[in-house]
Design the sequence.
């Protein structure tokens, strides 16, 4: 199955409920944010990146590889792309990346 929307520069991480996958735990893959539009070149600027995403996603999905299905989750409070996600002690953290503010991309360091 394909993601419900087209995304680029999104992130994903695995979360296993009930222990490790090999020990009978149940794993899901979580997908967060990304660029759902086109990338646009930026003229001379102080930014380290020469492009920006035109439509940034705040969507979150879970993917169940056992049923090959996606489920929409609560949207993220900040739309972002180029970020990372990791699971620690049963919580998934989405960190860093870029978000849109006043028609300019900004590096986002919220945790």
Sequence:
């Amino acid at each position: 199955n394909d993601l419900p929307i087209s995304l680029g520069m999104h992130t994903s991480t695995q979360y296993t409920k009930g222990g490790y996958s090999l020990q009978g735990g149940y794993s899901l893959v979580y997908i967060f944010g990304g660029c759902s539009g086109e990338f646009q070149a930026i003229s001379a600027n102080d930014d380290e990146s020469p492009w920006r995403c035109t439509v940034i996603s705040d969507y979150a999905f879970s993917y169940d590889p056992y049923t090959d299905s996606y489920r929409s989750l609560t949207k993220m409070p900040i739309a972002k792309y180029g970020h990372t996600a990791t699971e620690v002690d049963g919580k998934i953290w989405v960190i860093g990346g870029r978000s849109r503010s006043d028609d300019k991309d900004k590096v986002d360091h919220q945790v």
About this structure: The radius of gyration is 16 Å. Residues 95 and 111 are 6 Å apart (CA to CA).
